[in-house]
Amino acid sequence: MPRDPREIQLEIDAARESLAATLDQLAYRSSPTRLRAQGQAAVVRFLQSTAGRATVGALGLLVTLVVVQKARHRND
């Protein structure tokens, strides 16, 4: 039994709307501006946390030790 052309058209329209919504979601999720903002917010949250402050402190100490070590070897 042949299908009603109006029914087929409604199915096509629904599929088109669904595809458009999916493409909009993909464009939103992969937006470079949004991803950059999310990354920056994550870094700020980390740096403001106890673990972030400890990491920055340890990194500063390491850099200081390396600079002092290099300065000592220059004078030898």
Number of helices: 3
Helix content: over 70%
Spell out the helices and strands N to C: HHH
Rounded average pLDDT: 94
Shape verdict: rod-shaped
Please state the CA-atom Rg, rounded to the nearest Å. Answer: 29 Å
Q: Class by helix and strand content?
A: mainly alpha
**C-alpha termini separation:** 96 Å
DSSP strand content: under 5%
InterPro entries: DUF3618
Protein name: DUF3618 domain-containing protein
Explain what you see.
With 76 residues, the protein is mainly α. It is 89% helix and 0% strand. The protein is built from three helices and no strands. The longest helix has 26 residues, at 50-75. The relative contact order is 0.05.
Topology at a glance:
Layout: H1 5-29, H2 32-48, H3 50-75
Q: Brief overview, please?
A:
This is DUF3618 domain-containing protein. The chain has about 80 residues and is mainly alpha-helical.
Descriptive key words:
76 residues, mainly alpha, 3 helices
